[in-house]
Design a protein that fits this description.
- Helix 1 runs parallel beside helix 4.
- 48% of the residues lie in helices and 16% in strands.
- The chain is an alpha+beta fold.
Length: 159
C-alpha cells in the first residue's frame, strides 16, 4: 500500500524530471513548506496550522537532507499517520524501530528514487556508476544504496 500511495502522489504531481522535486510536490499537495534556521538536532516537523498541513525543515541542514525530510513528512501526511511529528536524527536512522517512522522513510525513498526511473537509467541508459546515480537523483549515498538493494540491483548494501 505504501508503494502505491507514493507512486500515486508521483503520478499526480511529478513532472518526470530528475531529481524529483519534493518541495514542488508538497506545494501541489497544498502543503506549506518553510525553512527555519537554528533548529539544532531537529531535522524537521510536520503539523497542521489552522487546518492546513505544514512542513518545517531545518534550513541549516544540507539540501539533500532537506529534500529527504520534506519527502519523509509528505509520507506522514499521505499515510495518515497523524497531525504532528517532530523528527530528529534518530528518526532517520537505518536502525529505526518505530514502524511509523520506517514507513515515512520508505515513502521518501519511493518518492525520491522512483524504481522505474532508476531502472531506466541503469538498463536503458547504461548508467551504472554509483556516484552518477546519486547525483542524478540528488540523494545521499545511504539512500541510493538502500534503494538499489530494495530493487535487487545489489545483494547487500554495506553501510
Amino acid at each position: 500500500m505504501l508503494k502505491r500511495i507514493a507512486r500515486y502522489m508521483l503520478a499526480k504531481h511529478w513532472d518526470g524530471k530528475l531529481p524529483v522535486d519534493a518541495f514542488a510536490i508538497a506545494r501541489s499537495e497544498n502543503v506549506t513548506v518553510q525553512r527555519e534556521p537554528d533548529m539544532g538536532a531537529v531535522y524537521g516537523r510536520f503539523e497542521f496550522v489552522d487546518g492546513q498541513p505544514r512542513i518545517v525543515v531545518n534550513g541549516d541542514a544540507p539540501e539533500l537532507r532537506q529534500r529527504f525530510v520534506v519527502a519523509h513528512h509528505l509520507g506522514h501526511l499521505a499515510l495518515e499517520h497523524g497531525t504532528h511529528f517532530t523528527c530528529a536524527s534518530r528518526q532517520f536512522s537505518l536502525y529505526q524501530l518505530d514502524e511509523i517512522e520506517n514507513q515515512a522513510n520508505r515513502f521518501a525513498l519511493e518518492m525520491l528514487v522512483p524504481g522505474f526511473a532508476l531502472n531506466i537509467l541503469i538498463q536503458k541508459r547504461n548508467i551504472t556508476n554509483f556516484h552518477r546515480l546519486t547525483d542524478a537523483f540528488e540523494v545521499s549515498e545511504l539512500a541510493m544504496k538502500l534503494r538499489l538493494k530494495q530493487l535487487g540491483w545489489i545483494k547487500r548494501a554495506r553501510i
